[in-house]
Write a structure and sequence with these properties.
It comes from Parazoarcus communis SWub3 = DSM 12120. With 205 residues, the protein is mainly beta. The protein has helices at 4-8, 186-201, and strands spanning 12-13, 22-23, 28-29, 34-37, 46-49, 54-55, 60-63, 69-72, 77-78, 83-85, 90-92, 97-98, 103-104, 107-109, 123-125, 128-130, 135-136, 141-142, 147-148, 153-154, 159-160, 168-171, 176-180. The protein has one domain: UDP N-Acetylglucosamine Acyltransferase, domain 1.
């Protein structure tokens, strides 16, 4: 009989995941989750996953260089088809949400020096850090070397090329700060002020 979680598409409890160096309790993974890594890993390097982490279908974790770490904190949820590269080093804090088909790219090929054929040039890694409680929306791309602050929100489809301050909402290509969390967006703020002025003019308190 099939596991009821498989029938609903909900990730199932797993005690192991091949290619992971440390796996916390309460781990869940959907079908097609994969880990790709190359070379001999140096002491202290590798892939480390915290407690109560959930990886949905076809999430891919990648660790290329032997001296880098891919660390996923506690209670992290990574949704369907996300691509998570630790080639240049990647640290994901606790309680982070990563949307469907998002990509965290911590490395890329050299393009300014070397061969005309980019595929022949060396891979350059720059670590990505995602602060606790952040949310990376569906289809967003986080480029090498970016730090996303605690509680920040990255809009769906955004391309993040620079650091995102804590508790800020960013969107676009390239991603730009829209407003802080916990406050209304500027358009809504203007509309709210206009409504208040209209009500005041009518004598409504």
């Amino acid at each position: 009989m099939r596991n009821p979680h498989e029938l609903t598409g909900w990730p199932c409890h797993r005690n192991t995941l091949e290619g992971v160096d440390s796996l916390g309790a309460g781990f869940r993974a959907g079908p097609g989750v994969s880990v790709f890594r190359t070379g001999n890993v140096h002491p202290g390097a590798g892939i480390f996953i915290g407690e109560d982490v959930m990886l949905f279908d076809h999430v891919r974790l990648l660790l290329g260089d032997a001296d880098t770490r891919l660390t996923i904190g506690n209670r992290v949820v990574i949704n369907v088809g996300a691509y998570v590269s630790g080639e240049g080093g990647l640290q994901i804090g606790d309680d982070v949400l990563i949307g469907p088909h998002a990509k965290l790219l911590s490395a890329g090929h050299e393009i300014h020096e070397g061969h005309l054929e980019v595929s022949r040039n060396p891979i350059i890694g720059m670590p990505i850090r995602v602060g606790a409680g952040a949310w990376i929306g569906a289809g967003a791309i986080v480029m090498p070397g970016v730090t996303i602050g605690e509680g920040a929100v990255v809009g769906a489809g955004s391309v993040v090329t620079r650091d995102v301050p804590a508790r800020m909402v960013v969107a676009g290509n390239p991603a730009r700060v829209l407003h802080a969390r916990g406050r209304q967006a500027p358009l809504l703020q203007r509309w709210s002020r206009l409504v208040k002025r209209m009500l005041a003019a009518l004598g409504v308190r």
